[in-house]
Model the fold of this input.
Amino acid sequence: MKVTSPKTLFLLFLIFLGSCDGDRVFEEFQDIPSQVWSINDSLVFQLPELEVSDKTGLLGIRFKESYSFTNFYVKLISQDSSGLILDEKLVNMVLFDPKSGKPQGKGFGDTFTSYDTLDFHFPPETKKITLLQYMREDQLSGIEAVGLKIIK
Done:
């Protein structure tokens, strides 16, 4: 019986992980410092060279069970490489079931991650996506991280 080396097993593991989500063309999460998102702070996602116009965007929110609201409003702004605003949209994500109060998405302990499809079509020249919390709270607590995922 031949024993496979740890390096070979690690390489096979990496190949397996890479093949698990073959439709993903971009994914990035950005942590919110001290889990408090100021109304003046923005999250900026620089997109690599890719054709985004025919892709589906997903917004991911990692939040605490102690988050004070049932939903989350975020303003999404797409820009080209010169900073020109191409489009903007206000997005509403429901984070807790309105009837039962149970957190949406998957989680462990008191932290949950929820994804929602963006009803937003990226203009072809989009190179940067900026997200602003739009909850009318100067200091919004309970949001750990926000992510953007683009799939085929």
Observations:
- The chain has one domain: 22-151.
- Residues 22-151 form a domain with the Jelly Rolls fold (CATH 2.60.120).
